Fold this sequence. Notes:
Layout: H1 7-14, H2 27-32, E1 38-42, E2 48-55, E3 59-65, E4 69-75, E5 80-88, H3 97-103, E6 116-126, E7 132-141, E8 144-160, E9 165-177, E10 193-203, H4 206-209
Antiparallel strand pairs: 1-4, 1-10, 2-3, 2-10, 4-5, 5-6, 6-7, 7-8, 8-9, 9-10
Amino acid sequence: MKPSSNKLGSAALKAAFVLSCASPGLAPALAQSIAGPVTYQLDPDHTFVTFEVLHFGTSTLRGRIGPVTGEVTVDRGAKTGDLRLRIPVATLDTGMRVLDARLREPDLLAAAEYPEAYFVATRFQFDAAGGVKEVRGEFTLRGVGQPLSLYAKSFGCRRDERLKREVCGGDFTGDLKRHDFGATFGEPFVSDDVHLVVQVEAIAPEAAGAR
């Protein structure tokens, strides 16, 4: 599969699709070459959720959850998509074991009762080059579902010579209020606002990725 023009480099720098490390410059040509809907399996080695929350008005507390599993179906011609993520909240890692254990408690993530969070999205927006730039759906945490939008910071697709398939990925960001999910412990000393960064790579099926 050959990239079609110099537009590819600039398009890959500004477009979008969940979730890190895609090769810039190849996204539109590869993406638009596959007609009809294509279902990509998320690569758990490269798909994680990072959260950020302000701690006592000073530093930002960060943690990572994953690997995240799921799949995404994209039809670039019809400009439609369907994304389903399964997020194992018990894998939370802030780098501090004591804090990790506290965050898993019932008044915060409630990881024992609700070991997974979910994001299901069926509303996709695409840019002119065919890249995904926004994904809107429902995020479920602690058994509570709320609307969530993820916006692409970066997006790209590439031909993976080892897998002989197309791989697409990027970084997406979103924001939520933890009180919306019943996780209010520590407020107002620990902020109610949570910033999410979702890094993702997804692998096309063999037939779609074959060149």
